[in-house]
Amino acid sequence: MTYQQAVVVVPAHDEVQHLPLCLKSVVTAAACLPVPVLVVVVLDSCTDDSKQLSGRFGSDVHFVEIEAGNVGAARAAGFSYARSTCGMDSDQSSVWFATTDADSVVDPDWLIRQTASGADMVLGVVRVADWRRYPAAAIRRYLAAYRAKRRPDGHGHVHGANMGFRAEAYWRVGGFANLPNDEDVDLVRRFEEHGYRIDRDARLSVVTSARQIGRAPRGFAAHLRSVQLARQDQV
User: Fold this and answer.
1) How buried is residue 123: exposed, middle or buried, by Cβ count under 10 Å (0-12/13-18/19+)?
2) Which of 110, 130, 142, 180 shows its CA 20 to 30 Å from the CA of 206?
3) If DSSP codes are grouped into helix, strand and coil, which group holds residue 67?
4) Is 141 helix (H, G, I), strand (E, B) or coil?
């Protein structure tokens, strides 16, 4: 499948400290893809200076403000904006959608690997580069549990910070739901129910934050806290 355009959506809630590095990496990945890429940053209920970043990353990076307090709604709003506002409301068959998080950094070949997969959806993994807030035992528990989800078809992880999908398929399954948690898991479930091909690429990795206080109540930060509190014999 040859794609003619791509869209990357980045939801953000008070992420002014992380957004610049995230967007620099996304813009680099976009530049490596030989088709136009629109980046939509969805500022959801922000009370910081995130809005002041608008205009610093080029004309293909759009900032949208909503008041949802909900990561599922934020991701959905970004793709809806791209479809209705940026001349993409007709043929979606040659459009690729991707999404990451504001506290994550993607590799330069992130979009290249996704669009070259031939699948309807691509699910990548995450890696943590800075573990300094965690004791060594907690890090070992996390890594052991993460590796345990390896599967013959790649891996069993679902991360909103590292996923992409065909736009046409995304709209057909109903898009991201208005969920404060597990909006990514819910979308994958509906892709599976519709029989779409999913590529679980264990080599497609993005760097994500190891912060202990996250934006989603049961997001990655909450998972890291639970691993830190778990006893060694519970792993």
Assistant:
1) buried
2) 180
3) coil
4) helix
